[in-house]
Amino acid sequence: MTKSRKLDMDEKLKERFELALCGSKTSILDWDMVDNTLYVSPSWKEMLGYRDEELPNTTHTWKRLVHKQDVVHVMKSVREHIKKHIKVFENNHRLRHKDGHWVWILGRARIIYDEQGNAVRMIGTHTDITKEKELQLQYSHYAQILEQIQDSVISFDMDGFITSWNKGSKILFGYETDEVLGKHFSMLFPKNTLDLYEKMMAELKEKGEYRTEIQLRRKTNKPLYAVLSLSSLKDEDGNTIGFVSYAHDITEQKKVEAILLEQKNILRYQAHHDALTRLPNRVLFFDRMEQSIRKTERLGKSFALFFIDLDKFKHINDSLGHGIGDRVLKVVARRIEETIRKEDTLSRLSGDEFTVIMEDLNHPEDASLLAEKILTVLQKPMYIDEYTLYISGSIGISLYPQDATDADSLLKYADTAMYKAKENGRNTFQFYASEMTQHALERMAMKTSLKEAIEKEELVVHYQPQMDAKSERMIGLEALVRWQHPSRGLLHPDKFIALAEETGLIIDIDRWVMKTAMKEVSHWHKEGLIPDVLALNLSIKQLEGHNFLKEINECLTAFDFKPQWLELEIPEGQVMKNHKDSIQKLQTLNKMGISISIDDFGTGYSSLSLLKRLPINRLKIDRSFIKDIPADEEDMAIVKAIIALADSLKLNIIAEGVETEEQKAFLLANGCTYMQGYYYSRPISSELMRKFLQKKAC
């Protein structure tokens, strides 16, 4: 090869390395130690804020810019390497940027020796590691984890086949050169990221460069996270002839970040939550109060603050011990938490004192409805060890902004109202403003309105899809009643179903929903829209009605509705308390081809022997066990147990209240493939459901 030809090859090689290192905060330095001349790449000067012509290529340039505390250390290290005849050199030091700030540099170089063993040349790279160094300094106790390792430089052709593989690549990925040359670059990407690889290559070909943090694949399949920089290789005419990748391992950094984040979250959680009940503590309560005040003031709405004190709780601690008392408090916390809405905040202030912030309060009487629900759930018996315990509570309610506009006053007034409730005999609630307690009595008017709602056709049916999460296919839909109130707008069941059950109107409502939904679904079938199974909520009161079997037969006939299209959902708590007559009716329905599902499973007191006798086809996991997955280990254990129980009884199973990808993944991994919830769709009107089915049929 001629001398000129060799020089051309050297220039191309230099250009390739400049391109390979472009955008990676890395520069080339070449020190001729014989004549003490230094070549620095333009990217080195650019890293320090200079143009190429502003800095001469001399050792004086480096010495002028290096930090005084570092220059002695660096030169001493170089001498020690030469003395020991070490070829590979690595060092961290600081260089002054043109604007005056310090840039942390990772220097990596190779020292070249002549035949007599004299150091004649030192060539390597400078990498800007300012951000990494700042993180390292900030968390110095993790410095050992953040050890620097060799970087990877790989070139590959236009079709993605690897053409060069450096030593750093061997260290990083674990493959020898002959194992990868000629193989496709995508072999370094996990199979589940191949779509990302295609997208990355498309952008690289379009823009000429690409940089990202990404997970790559080692030969050992151990996790590898890297900063990956890709750029185009061009010939002398500017045509792209291939690509080069530069990968810097940040796996340990990611581990440290994860550890620090976990520790931060743990400390933050401990500082803001009660250790016993895991509820927000006093600190977080006041923070939530301030947030509610700002939000409510901005939206021009109202909210209620509940101060809940357990009646005679001290007797439990004194007679049974604090261990039993603590378990009672945990049960109380769970019951109240399951009673309030998701957007409400339940806190434990101290001892047996709890607070609830009920936001978006449309009417003061809505607060009284929630208070009644809380009092009701508190009165349910508690079974702790061999004890059957009964407890009640007194609730005080203050309103924002009617009673006060600051957190301290609202809490003080709610506390005052709570003592009014205790004076009135306990197991009741009181508003701070006495006239508000009177307003609660107006709830009776709601009962009249609800009865008229059926006659005035104010009720509507919404539908929520039920999905097979594995195939993403709809397997059915649940009919859910809504009340289109003339003055209060669209009301969800939690606003009136409890009242309907108290008054017995639930039978008329369930009958109306059954007829309306079966009629609509039958029409959809005739139109070729297949909604699969219609799930209807069935109250035990409706089932116990003398004419129920006759009514359902009439609906099947009148609407040409096939029994196999229908599934009846009965709450676990109701069916478990029922008698032989109800079980016989369920058996009759099942023989007709109608499926029977146990709704809200896990919240009642199921008897396994009774479950075996019931003619049921499916268990429906209650949303209260789903909402905290995967954060709550108890809920995960309960859900796994329910799935195992269903499997042993050869029953289908479906989970309701699925809202997140994590919940879906957990359920799938544990054998529950049928789901419904906001993750797929909120309950929607019949018109929207019809459009949904039309789209599905296309």
TrEMBL record:
CDD domains: EAL (cd01948), GGDEF (cd01949), PAS (cd00130)
Keywords from the UniProt entry: Kinase, Transferase
Pfam families per record: EAL, GGDEF, PAS_3, PAS_9
Database matches in InterPro entries: Biofilm_reg_signaling, Diguanyl_cyclase/Pdiesterase, EAL_dom, EAL_sf, GGDEF_dom, Nucleotide_cyclase, PAC, PAS
GO molecular function, a single term: kinase activity
Claim: Transferase is one of the keywords in the record: yes
Gene3D superfamilies registered for this protein in UniProt: 3.30.70.270, EAL domain, PAS domain
Name recorded for this polypeptide: Histidine kinase
Biological source species: Sulfurovum riftiae
